[in-house]
Structure formats: C-alpha cells, structure tokens
Design a protein that fits this description.
The protein is mainly α. Helices cover about 70% and strands about 0% of the residues. It has two helices and no strands. The radius of gyration is 16 Å and the shape is elongated.
C-alpha cells in the first residue's frame, strides 16, 4: 500500500484485482484432471471465438 500515492489508485487496483482473481481462481484440488482439461479446452475455444 505504501507504493500508491493516492488512495483512489489503490482502490481501483484492488477492485479490478478482486474481480479478476475471483474469475480465474479455481479450486484446483476439487477438480479432476479430466474436468480441468475440459474447462481449459472450453476457455481456449471461447477465447478463439472472441478473437476471430
């Protein structure tokens, strides 16, 4: 927190970080290898469709 000169900048980063972290942080210990692969393939397919 000491690196930020303004509290507004820190709050902006914290809100974005929280959203992104919650979106991508999967409970890996709860998933099987096959479900991880399926989720990965689905994410790649969605990314490719968005970039096309």
């Amino acid at each position: 927190m000491l690196r930020f000169r303004r509290m507004k900048t820190l709050q902006k980063l914290a809100s974005v970080h929280g959203t992104v972290h919650n979106h991508f942080n999967q409970a890996c210990h709860l998933n099987t290898r096959q479900s991880d692969k399926d989720l990965s393939y689905a994410a790649i397919a969605e990314w490719k469709s968005l970039m096309a």
